[in-house]
Predict the structure.
Amino acid sequence: MLALKYLLTILGVGLFGSSGILVAYDIYIAARLRWLLEQTSGEPGTEAVQRKTARPFGPVRWRLALQLAAVGIVPVLLALSIVVVPDGTAGIRVSQLSGVRPGTLYPGVHLVTPLVDDVVLYDTREQVYTTSANAGNKASTEVLTVQAREGLNLGLAVSVRYRIDPSKLSSIHQNLPQPVGEQVVAPVVSSTYRQLAPNYVTREIFAVKREELRTQAADMIKTRLASDGIVVREVLLRDIQLPAEYAKGLEGLLLKEQENERLGTEQDIKLKEVKIAELEADAQKARDVKQAEAQAQVRVLQAKAEADAMQYTLPLKQKQIEQTKLEAQARKESTLQNAEAAAQAKIIDSKAELERQHNLSEAEANRIRVTAAADSERMKYEAAVLKQNPMLIQKIIAERLSDKLQIMMVPIDGKNFFASDVMRSAFQGGMGASSSEDDSQNPAPVATAAAQRKGNKRP
């Protein structure tokens, strides 16, 4: 609908502009032709030219322009008759002839009489009127100061949520000053709290009867503003500002009261602890009595159970004694049998050991005999070899004396040997020295060495 209104407005303005442009164009063309004719009137042959070009000048098209203007008035009037009330607002029609017309225009599209009725819009959403408790807050917020019964000045921070009743917009527009929040709501709130505060002392307002004061003030404010078409939703008492000296004294008094309450609470706690201790002692006593009775009953039951069990226990004990005797007799017999078996085993072991030792002695004697026979036979062979080669014993002695000696066997006669004399002399001198050295270091005789060699060959 707003698009239609704007379209009609544009159309009307366009028609008015077209009519004006048409008149201006006709006037411009007529003036231009006259100027051209005046410029050519003094030149030769102008009369012939004028006769050829003479034609009447067309008049200005006033009629067509008036028709366009008349047609343009229609969409403009239609656009002015369309009123759109936005959300959150409501309007009333104020006639230039009869004043405020009854009825409220709610959000939406409405038709009014153009050029006669005006629409005045009011905000119907909830609004908040706020006061502060002292001048140190926002400068734009009103400071609300009231007097208590003692005459002390108190600062109150109050918030009032209200809205305008759309059904009473005509009365509000005719009777109430504008703006409503500053001219109507603010005085009512201030006068109400200033009227009620002297009924209470400062301490009651600050502590115990704060909610009572707020409730009474809210009821009075709602009643007084409802008659003016203002609906109050909620009244809040946010803060109370006390005088500085009174606040200090009240703080000290509150601290003392809190201390008194703390002591009273501690005393109650102590009394409760004593009562709890007494109750616990009684409970413990009762538990001990019950426990003693229960133990006595248990002992009686145990005695009865033992007496009943003895009837079955004695036969069982007798059977256990007989069984123990039989087990002892069996252990005794098994012990004797084990001792006899151990004695027989020892006898068998001793016999086996004697037989083993006899076999070992026979084996050792046999070994000695075989060794002796082998040694005697070896000695016979060695004697025969030494008898055939007497120089072999000297070689054996030389080999046994030192491992650093080098021995060379040469014939004694030295025939056909180019160094027989040298070797013989060297051999004799060397052998003599070696014999003397080795005899001094190893004085053992040759027979002992041979005996040792024989002993080494024994197994």
Observations:
- The beta strands are 82-85, 89-95, 99-100, 108-111, 117-123, 127-132, 142-147, 153-164, 230-241.
- The two ends are 143 Å apart (CA to CA).
- The first strand starts at residue 82 and ends at 85.
- DSSP finds eleven helices and nine strands in the chain.
